[in-house]
Amino acid sequence: MTSRRLNISSGAPYEPIYGYSRAVRYGDQIHVSGTCAPKGHENSDSYTQMMAAFDIIGRALREAGSSFEDVVRTVVYVTDIADFEEIARAHGEVFKDIRPASTTVQVTSFLRPWQRIEIETYAIAGAHKAEA
């Protein structure tokens, strides 16, 4: 019998130190940890950081046997709610036709002071194939 749990790593340096996985698939549920833009985005705007985070999230979902089409919820954390239009544009480009439940929350900071956004993502494998 195989395990129903699959831990997915992105190779981030804090994964083994903090003791977390980029994503965990358990059965058909996939939980993607809060994801920020990686180094190299120190001067990027919120839109660009969102798209960089979505790139990492997309890789984790694919490794879990899923895709953005299966996402049922996102939580977006921002350091400046005034960036909401940029954030909404990026989120809308990825989820225009999928339309998961979503929440946006302003926070004071992230691990690296230049990071502007962080995204948590929850998916159910096969959700896009389910009939209403």
TrEMBL record:
Protein name listed in UniProt: Enamine deaminase RidA (YjgF/YER057c/UK114 family)
Listed InterPro entries: RutC-like_sf, YjgF/YER057c/UK114
Naturally occurring in which organism (per UniProt): Microvirga flocculans
Top-rank lineage group of the source organism: Bacteria
Pfam family, one: Ribonuc_L-PSP
Matches recorded under Gene3D superfamilies: RutC-like (3.30.1330.40)
